[in-house]
Amino acid sequence: MVVSGFAYFLANLDSFDSLAEKSKNLQSELVDLSIVIETEKNATSAEISTLLRARSTYRQDKEELEDNSIGDREEMNALERKIVKASEDLKNVQEDLDNKNAVLETLNAQVKEEEKKQEPLLTQKDELMQELEGVLSVNEQKRKEFEDVNVKVSKMKLIRKTASNNYESSSRSMMEEYVLPEFLFWGDRIEVLAESISPSGQGFFAKQGANDGIRTGFFFLASLGELGEEKPFFVKATLVEDAYSFLELEDDSLNFHDFLNSGQKLFLIRTGDSANDKSTEFEVDVALEVDSF
Fold first, then answer.
1. Do 233 and 249 meet the contact criterion of CB atoms below 8 Å apart?
2. Which residues pair with residue 191 across a beta bridge?
3. Regarding beta strands 219-223 and 203-206, do their DSSP bridges make them parallel or antiparallel, or are they unpaired?
4. How would you write the pLDDT of the chain (293 residues) with one tens digit per residue?
5. What is the pTM of this model?
6. Domain boundaries, the chain
7. CA of 231: how far to CAs of 113, 158, 226, 227, in Å?
8. How buried is residue 220: exposed, middle or buried, by Cβ count under 10 Å (0-12/13-18/19+)?
9. Which residues, listed in sequence order, are joined to residue 206 by a DSSP beta bridge?
10. What contacts 254, CB < 8 A, 6 or more positions away?
11. CA–CA separation, 159 vs 293, rounded Å?
12. How far apart are CA 113 and CA 119, in angstroms?
């Protein structure tokens, strides 16, 4: 049996060599694994230290947060109370706003109703304004026409005054060459003063008489103002003395009480008998032509 075991040893000698090699390799790997384990052990210790420090920091932060959360909770409770009060105030304001909106809608409805009632008045106002504009336009046109007429009248008055001055100048120079009669001639003009009016109003006494050229039976074209400014009328001298005379109206429809006052002046131009149509027409024309100068 020893021989057979020795023989087996010799036969498997190479196998033992291989096992020795494997054992050596395993030992080498075991050493390497020990190194790795030691390295990983050191790394794990470092990680554990880091985790412990992180845990300590986390705990401190947590404690700070818990301390801060107490103040935040109180502040939050105060804010919640304010929010509740603000909500109640907002609700009251909203109710007040709703009431005012209701009143406003009522007022708007009333305003619209009044506007409808005023529409005819506004339409009438517009129509009246248009009519007023038309009247103002016509008035402006008439004013311009009046100004034009006024300019023409002023020009005519100036021409008349110039002609009158020329006539008076020529008349004076011509009269100096003639011997005037002792009484008023045809077309002669005289200014008289009404001293008193008869009760009937058909005549008046003047302070001018025979000494002023008036004679009984003389007819005159009379006017209260300058001839052409007032409506003229005819009078007749029925009583004449040296210093006064009585003049009667030729037109029975007139009455001196209606337009003449005591102390008022009249302008007389001698003319013909108003009863004689032909002579009166000729002599009045002559009187008017003379006075127009």
1. yes
2. 267
3. unpaired
4. 545 555 555 555 555 566 677 777 777 877 777 787 778 777 777 877 887 888 888 788 777 777 776 766 777 788 888 888 888 888 888 888 888 889 888 888 888 888 888 889 888 888 899 889 999 999 899 899 988 888 988 988 889 889 888 878 877 776 666 555 678 888 899 999 999 999 999 999 999 999 999 999 999 999 987 655 678 999 999 999 999 999 999 999 999 999 999 999 999 999 976 444 444 444 444 444 444 44
5. 0.35
6. 183-292
7. 63, 22, 10, 8
8. buried
9. 194, 245
10. 233
11. 10
12. 10
User: Cα 210–230–269 angle (5° rounding)?
Assistant: 25
Amino acid at 271: T
Domain 183-292 CATH class label: mainly beta
Residues 6+ apart with CB under 8 A from 192: 206, 207, 208, 212, 247, 265, 266, 268
- Compute the distance between CA of residue 269 and CA of residue 280 in angstroms, rounded to an integer: 13
* Beta carbons within 8 Å of 291's beta carbon, 6+ residues apart: 187, 189, 227, 228, 269
Two structure tokens written together for 154: 């002023």
What the block records as the tokens of 31 is 């050493």
